[in-house]
Design goal:
- By secondary structure, the chain is of the alpha/beta class.
- It folds into 2 domains: 177 residues, Periplasmic binding protein-like II (D-Maltodextrin-Binding Protein, domain 2, 3-Layer(aba) Sandwich), CATH 3.40.190; 99 residues, 3-Layer(aba) Sandwich (D-Maltodextrin-Binding Protein, domain 2).
- It has 13 helices and 10 strands.
- Strands 1, 2, 3, 4, 8, 9 and 10 form a 7-stranded mixed β-sheet that branches. Strands 5-6-7 form a 3-stranded mixed β-sheet.
- The two termini are 45 Å apart.
- 36% of the residues are buried.
Length: 292
């Protein structure tokens, strides 16, 4: 065969191979919330799915909570990895219930409420009605919170009213809230923040939830992942894998702690994957079996 023809055939085979590989690549957009546990698991799954032989092209779309639900429902995003049920996120799901699919639980025992350092005398939210002045922040008795669109923010406004607290809620970001807590903790000063479990802060600091006798913040819940309506039909393999995914406090806590230690979500998630390959392979293998 002439060398020119051989070169043409070789180029054709390479092109066909590259084309087949491109067709094997799958695009996936994950609606990501700016919360420690959500950032952690989103980066973990991005890295895992971009590995060979899976070869996904994963985009993390950082959005607010309500946009995560509307964006997945409209198909602008394929999945999002965190919804708290049965109560916390029910109102976010309701407007989109016909366009969303709520999938399996990957974490149990989730909760939220008002949290103080263990050295603080208060034991109950009701105690803040008399001790509110103790928690002075920037010149006012304050509960330091996160973004005003979050469920915990609205529940905290309910708690202030229900318990008659002489305090304001100062909405900020998780980063700003944790910076305020860290500063107060280092100086052993009173501080009350809105916080939730799972969160790396409970490994870093000696903290306690204030009792909630009126149950404003509700009972413990489970965290599910959710998708657009037709996602399971489009990608049965990944649906099965994510349904097989489950993390306990040790697994999730160590992932978040690794990210906090490195200061880089991708690098922290990569190190955690390397150290927990057996667990990761278990999710993937179980998903493979269930997808068949």
């Amino acid at each position: 065969m002439p060398r020119t023809m051989q070169a043409i055939l070789a180029a054709g085979l390479v092109a066909a191979s590259l084309n087949a590989q491109a067709q094997d690549d799958k695009a996936l957009t994950i609606g990501t919330l700016n919360w420690a546990e959500n950032i952690a698991v989103a980066n973990m799954w991005k890295l895992l799915l971009e590995e060979a032989p899976y070869n996904y092209e994963v985009e993390l779309s950082n959005v607010g909570k309500s946009v995560a639900f509307s964006g997945v429902a409209s198909g602008d995003m394929d999945i999002s990895l965190e919804t708290w049920l049965p109560a916390t996120d029910a109102s976010y799901i309701e407007p989109h219930k016909d366009q969303l699919v709520i999938h399996d639980v990957w974490y149990e025992g989730a909760g939220m409420g008002l949290v103080v350092p263990s050295y603080v005398e208060a034991e109950s939210i009701a105690d803040l009605a008399e001790q509110g002045e103790t928690f002075d922040y920037q010149g006012e008795p304050t509960i330091v919170g996160i973004d005003p669109g979050s469920s915990i923010s609205s529940l905290t406004e309910e708690a202030i009213e229900s318990y008659g607290l002489p305090m304001r809620q100062l909405s900020s970001s998780e980063v700003a809230m944790m910076a305020a807590l860290d500063d107060a903790y280092r100086r052993q000063e009173p501080m009350v923040v809105t916080l939730w479990s799972p969160h790396w802060a409970f490994a870093e600091y000696d903290l306690k939830y204030l009792d909630d006798p009126r149950n404003v913040y509700g009972d413990e819940e489970a965290i599910h992942w959710f998708s657009r309506k037709d996602f399971a039909e489009d990608d049965p393999w990944l649906t099965a894998v994510l349904n097989a995914w489950y993390m306990d406090d040790d697994a999730l806590g160590s992932l978040m702690a690794m990210i906090e230690e490195t200061g880089d979500p991708a690098e922290g998630a990569r190190q955690w994957i390397d150290e927990n390959r057996a667990l990761v392979e278990e999710w993937l293998a179980t998903g493979e079996e269930n997808a068949q």
